[in-house]
Amino acid sequence: MQLEHVNVFKNLESLTKIRQREVFCPIAKVTALNTPLIAADDLMLKTTMSSVAIYDKELSKIIYNHTEFPEIETNGTRIAFEQFIENISYLDRQVLLWGIFDATYGTLGKREISCPFCANKFEDDIKSEELLQPDSLTAWDLDQSFVEYTFMIDEIVDIPNVYKLQFIAQLPSIKKHLDVLTLLTTDQIQNNFDNFGSLFSKVEELSTVISSIKVFKTIDDERPDTFDKLKDIYFVIRKFLLLSITSSVLQKFNNHFAKFIPSFKKPYTCGECGKDFDFRVDMEINLFRRFLETE
What we know:
The chain contains eleven helices and eleven strands. It is of the alpha+beta class. The longest helix has 15 residues, at 90-104. 28% of the residues are buried.
């Protein structure tokens, strides 16, 4: 490298900071700065779209590469990728995706909007900053951090030798989500994506939010059998749990943590029927949709 180019490179580095977006991660309760995608991300993004098996990890790396934490990363320090995925919740990842999208594109472009009440349709050019409403984010307000906080869910079965199943649930980190992904074969992931439009079925979804399962043989069982390793939890859910139990536990989990789920939306009033409604946006889907539109 020629010495005279060093200062030029430093100046060019400022291009990546032209459209920084400050965001607040409501679960980790930390402020982050997101920078726009750069040309080098092109190949990585194409790779994530062509192989769903590596999709989540590669996308998490993209998010990490375009995220800074000014309150934590002082004096030129940088938290490691492993620290990032262990201490940032999967819900916060959605907020960081919004920040990267806004820093990169600033708009979703024109979208067709349909009124859910009268089916009236119209087009609107939606700016990404319009999707963050006053009620979009709710800061974590429980005494323990999301990494420590657990929520107990009981399901009474009352059959011979199994009286109750007790699930210990908690919000997943990015790492927990990635760890569950490693339990699946490429074919399983592809099958989930083809059938459910998601990388996970209910089995994987529940495995992501459960840290242990206890099996009580009787109502007064003081030594229940416990499964607290991810592989064992996944095996029990996949092989033995009824769909009704799986759905019930997921519903209770979602109800308990509902207020913390980020909501990206733009409010509208229908020009035909006059009713108010929200146009909700999945930032992950729109990141790739917007990227494809630039090809």
